[in-house]
Write a structure and sequence with these properties.
The protein has 336 residues and is mostly helical. It has 17 helices and 3 strands. The protein has a 3-stranded antiparallel β-sheet.
Length: 336
C-alpha cells in the first residue's frame, strides 16, 4: 500500500479497478457469453433454441467454459469440428453453424473484447467434407420392422416414432409438440409459427390412427409437452441412445444405416404413389409453395391434406399389418 501511495496511486482506487477487471473477466468467459447469447431473442425465440443450448453446452462449454472468449482461436474450433466430423459430419456442420452465429452475435455486442470472430474464415466443406444430400427411404419391409420394433420401446420414444411415420412431420416438430396445439375433437394439430421452419403456422389433419396414438399418451400436471421424460416440463431429447435401441431391435431387417429424418422422406415418397396432387403432397409435409404461390395462393388445402394423410395411414396399415394373401383391400375397389 505504501509503495502505491509513493507512486501516487490511490490504493482504494486500485482495488476498485481490480474488482472491475475481475468482474469483466468473469462476464467475458466463453461460458458466460454463451449463456448471454442463449437468453437473447436471437436464440430463445427460435424453434431450435433447446437444441442449440444442449449442443453448445455439451460440445463447447465443457471444453472452453472458463476461457476468456477472445482466447478461443480458429485453430481451437477447427480441431473440435474436425474431431466431430470424423464420426458425425452432419452434426459437425451444424455445430460450426452454431458457433458462427454465436461469435457473430458476441462481436456485434462490443462488450466482450472480441475484435473479430475466430470462425469467420472457417469453411464447412474443408472441415467436414462436402454436404451430401440424403436420398435414403425405408422399404416396406423396413417400415414394418421399424413399426414392430417401436412396440418394444417405452413411452415416449415408441409413440413418437409412430407419429413421425403417420404425419411425415419433422422430428423436432413432433418431439417438441405440446397438448395445447391439438384439437382432438376436430382432429387437427396446429404447429405455431414460432416453432415452425417457415415461420408460419402449419396445420396437420390427424388420421384416426394418429388420434389413437395420441389418446394413449399420458398427460401430466407439471407441463404440457406431449413427449417428455420430465412430466411435461421439457420435451424429450434423448434421441441418440434410444435410436441405438431401435437399431438393435431392427438388426438384420434393414439394408443399411438410417436416421429418423428418413421417415419423413419415406412418407413424402409414398404419397407420390397415392392419388394425391403434387402440391398437396408438398403442403402435407409442410414444404412451402414455390414462387408466387406463397403470396397469392392462401387456400389452406385442409380437406386435401386430410385425405392425403388418411390414404397414407391406410397404406401404412397395410404395410405394417399386411392382410392375408387371399384378401384384397377394399380401397382398390374390388371385393375379396
Amino acid at each position: 500500500m505504501i509503495d502505491l501511495a509513493e507512486q501516487g496511486i490511490d490504493p482504494a482506487e486500485q482495488q476498485r479497478q481490480e474488482k472491475i477487471a475481475e468482474q469483466r473477466r468473469k462476464q467475458s468467459t466463453f461460458k458466460a457469453v454463451v449463456e448471454a447469447w442463449l437468453t437473447s431473442d436471437e436464440v430463445k425465440k427460435t424453434r431450435t433454441a433447446d437444441k442449440v443450448a444442449r449442443e453448445m453446452h455439451h460440445e463447447f462449454v465443457t471444453i472452453w467454459g472458463d476461457w476468456p472468449l477472445a482466447d478461443v482461436t480458429a485453430s481451437d474450433v477447427a480441431a473440435v469440428i474436425r474431431a466431430k466430423a470424423a464420426t458425425a459430419p452432419a452434426q459437425a456442420r451444424n455445430l460450426l453453424g452454431f458457433l458462427k452465429r454465436f461469435f457473430g452475435w458476441a462481436q456485434a455486442q462490443h462488450s466482450y473484447e472480441l475484435e473479430a470472430s475466430p470462425v469467420a474464415a472457417l469453411k464447412p466443406d474443408r472441415l467436414t467434407g462436402k454436404k451430401n444430400k440424403r436420398k435414403r427411404t425405408l422399404t416396406d419391409d423396413e417400415l414394418r420392422a421399424m413399426w414392430q420394433a417401436t412396440d418394444a420401446l417405452d413411452y415416449p420414444f415408441g409413440p413418437l416414432v409412430k407419429l413421425l411415420a403417420l404425419t411425415g412431420q419433422r422430428r423436432s416438430d413432433v418431439s417438441n409438440a405440446r397438448w395445447r396445439e391439438f384439437d382432438l375433437g376436430k382432429k387437427l394439430w396446429t404447429i405455431p409459427a414460432e416453432r415452425y421452419k417457415t415461420a408460419s403456422p402449419h396445420v396437420v389433419p390427424l388420421s384416426d390412427d394418429a388420434i389413437a396414438i395420441l389418446e394413449s399418451l399420458p398427460r401430466f400436471k407439471s407441463g404440457d409437452h406431449m413427449f417428455t421424460t420430465t412430466f411435461g416440463v421439457r420435451p424429450f431429447g434423448g434421441f441418440s441412445r434410444l435410436k441405438a435401441r431401435l437399431d438393435k431391435l431392427m438388426e438384420g431387417k434393414v439394408a443399411g444405416p438410417w436416421i429418423l429424418h428418413d421417415i419423413r422422406r419415406t412418407v413424402r415418397t409414398q404419397l407420390s404413389a397415392l392419388p394425391v396432387a403434387d402440391n398437396v403432397r408438398e403442403l402435407t409435409i409442410g414444404h412451402a409453395q414455390p414462387g408466387l404461390h406463397q403470396v397469392y395462393d392462401q387456400y389452406a388445402y385442409l380437406d386435401e391434406k386430410r385425405r392425403a394423410l388418411t390414404l397414407w395411414a391406410g397404406r401404412l396399415r397395410d404395410i405394417v399389418s399386411p392382410p392375408p394373401p387371399n384378401v384384397v383391400s377394399m380401397s382398390k375397389g374390388r371385393r375379396s
